[in-house]
Structures are given as structure tokens and as C-alpha cells.
Amino acid sequence: MLRLSGITAGYGAGLILRGVDLSLPAGQVTCLIGPNGSGKSTTLKTISGLLRPQDGTVTFRGEDISRLSARERLLRGIVHVPQDRSLFPAMTVRENIEMGGFVLRDRRLVAQRWEEIAATFRLVAERADAHAGSLSGGEQKTVEIARTLMLDPALILLDEPSIGLDPKSRTAVFRNVAGLARSGRTVLLVEQNARSGLAVSDTGVVLEGGRVALTGTGADLLTDPEVGRLYLGAGTAVQDAVPAASAVSGD
Ligand SMILES: Nc1ncnc2c1ncn2[C@@H]1O[C@H](COP(=O)(O)OP(=O)(O)OP(=O)(O)O)[C@@H](O)[C@H]1O
């Protein structure tokens, strides 16, 4: 689905990514963990086109997209949900969701996708006319995730979706992540709550110093003593999360 090969990137003279190689299998959730400043968010930016790599290639469905703009990548189905809250607080939930389709020219398609999203996310249907700013942090994150579906994305990049949320909201967010994969999307998740992130992921990737240090199944990384010592100590309890999308069958 997506492959990063030898990605070198940074801000100005400062190099952050130092040759990142990463493959995302279609329809799976991959969780990127690692210390603060290791380049997790920077990796997402090189995929969505917010940052151009100095070297290396980003290949999406067999096409080299390294030189494409963020808008061109959006149109190919790559959607990025940043860490910071990104809803327009004075607009309604429905208006915010519809804004997710701003690159679409077809108003009928926007209306049809709105109906599909409202049918999938009960919160969106129930709070359609509420101002986004009146929702809790967890509810806003759910709306942000729901909004990605306006572009029927193939690849969804989620930057720390559970940060700052209470345990119940975190569980809801991770359930939504699993739901995205069940509906056929590919998800790359960056998570400080590494336990919960890995528990919901098919694959885990550890980024250290701008390079991939370790890759394994989410379950393997959860039980790796070294990963446990370095990254899982202060995480959220596993039972807060839901099982990896591929382990959830038939519902
Ligand atoms: N716009 C920017 N301009 C300059 N430096 C930046 C910018 N964004 C990030 N950095 C720096 O790049 C480094 C990597 O940041 P990045 O956000 O990718 O790390 P991260 O692994 O996501 O860490 P965190 O968990 O703290 O978010 C950090 O040292 C950060 O200060």
C-alpha cells in the first residue's frame, strides 16, 4: 500500500529522519512508537506531503508520490489527522464533517458521504447540529476521525489520537481505529499510549533517532522485554484497548 524508502527529512538544516524504511500493508493498522523527538510526527508529514523529504521515496499503490503536493495526496486518498485539535469550534459537527470534503467538487457526493458517516458514527448523527467547540475532547477526536471518511481514504494517518483523553474516551478512539481497518482502510497510528496503540495494531514499529529500530507484530512488541522496559512502562493498561483489527472477526 505504502512504502517509505531511505527517507531523509528535517526542518531547515536540522535532519530528523535519517533513512526511514517502512512498509504499510493494506487494510492493516501499523503503530509507530518511540521516544519524544524521534521523528514520528515528521514521518507522518512526509507521507501526507506537509514536508518534502530531502532524500528517499514515498511510494503509494505503486506510484512515486514523493514530489506531489499535500492536496494531490489527499485526492489519492491519504488523509492526515494531526495531533492538535483541528475542528472549527464555531461550526456545527455536520459543517465540520462536510469541510472534510473541501477538495471534492461533487456536492451530491458530499451529501451521500455525510449520510454514510452519520450512519456509521452515532455521535455524529446525534450531535450533527451542535457546535464542535461544545463537544468533549474525546467526542471531537471521534468527529475528526469520522471526517476523514469524507474522502473515502485508503490511508489514514493518525497522530496521537488518544492524547489528553480520559480512559473511556481513549477506549472509544481505539475502537474507532479498529473500525477503520475493518472497513478496509490502512491506518498508520502514532501513539504515546504505546500499550493501547500496539494492542489495536497488526504491526508495531519502533522509531529511534530518525531510523526504524524494530518492527514486529503488535503482539510481539507488547511482549518484548526491551520494548516493555523502554516504552510500555507508563502506558495505558492493555485492557483499555480493543484487539487488533485483524483479530476481530465477523462483527
Ligand atoms: N516545524 C518544525 N520546525 C523545526 N523543528 C521541528 C518542527 N517540527 C518538529 N521539529 C523538531 O523535530 C524533532 C522531531 O519531531 P517529531 O514531532 O517528528 O517527533 P515525535 O517523534 O513525533 O515526538 P513527540 O512524541 O514529542 O511528538 C523534534 O526535535 C522537534 O522539535
Automatic annotation (TrEMBL):
Entry keyword set: Amino-acid transport, ATP-binding, Nucleotide-binding, Transport
GO molecular function: ATP binding
Entry annotated with the keyword Coiled coil: no
Stored Gene3D superfamilies: P-loop containing nucleotide triphosphate hydrolases (3.40.50.300)
Database matches in Pfam families: ABC_tran
Matches recorded under InterPro entries: AAA+_ATPase, ABC_transporter-like_ATP-bd, BCAA_Transport_ATP-bd_LivF, P-loop_NTPase
Keyword Isomerase: no
ABC transporter domain residues: 2-234
Source superkingdom: Bacteria
PROSITE patterns linked to this entry: ABC_TRANSPORTER_2
Family: Belongs to the ABC transporter superfamily.
PANTHER family named in the record: ABC TRANSPORTER ATP-BINDING PROTEIN, HIGH-AFFINITY BRANCHED-CHAIN AMINO ACID TRANSPORT ATP-BINDING PROTEIN LIVF
Protein name: ABC transporter ATP-binding protein
Species in which this protein is naturally found: Streptomyces dengpaensis
Upper classification of the organism: Bacteria, Bacillati, Actinomycetota, Actinomycetes, Kitasatosporales
